[in-house]
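Wed. Picked up where I left off yesterday with Phosphatase PAP2 family protein. The coffee machine is broken again, so keeping this brief.
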Amino acid sequence: MIKYFWIALVLLCMLLFFFLLNEIQSEKSLAFDTYIAELFSVGENTFSFTFFKTITYLGKSKFIGFGSLLCVLYLWIVKKDYWTMAVFSIGIAGADVLNGWIKNHVKRERPENHLMETAGFSFPSGHAMVGLIFFSMVAYLIMKEIKGNSLKWAVGVGFVCLILLIGVSRIAMKVHFPTDILAGFALGAAYSLTLFKLYKFLGPRVL
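Structure written out below (tokens, as returned):
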């Protein structure tokens, strides 16, 4: 039963994603978006504004692209782990392409009154989706090198908090609706779980 628990999680995440997709395509104003947006609203030139604006850069495509390059070089030159390097590269590139395709298909406009410059469509959030996938993979690489369970838990919890903060930062900066973030997390989680399972399943057969 536990062996296939990941399948239930993937299905649950996909159900949530398609539920949100259906809701936003109805083009109605969602009470959830309004409530959460007000909850995380920040004023310009405040500490919260500066904090979230800094955090949001960690989910930008340039940061993730540069971080991915460093990880690939590390896996290639230092670890000589070509299978993990290939999965990491294809995983991040595929996630970015998938996110862009869905955005251009759904064509949801971003919220008004942005607190920072942005471009493109809104649903699902690339920061939430690709950021979750990237930082999950980085956390996995770090945790593989750590022996103590307590430290592994600390690293895992730290990365989860970072991923959540990046999502919240997009709401605070008014460049995404909360449902964009939730959908990005749901799709990113389903993608990551599937990717990790394929990585472990195919690894022994490829190597």
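Quick read: DSSP finds eight helices and no strands in the chain.
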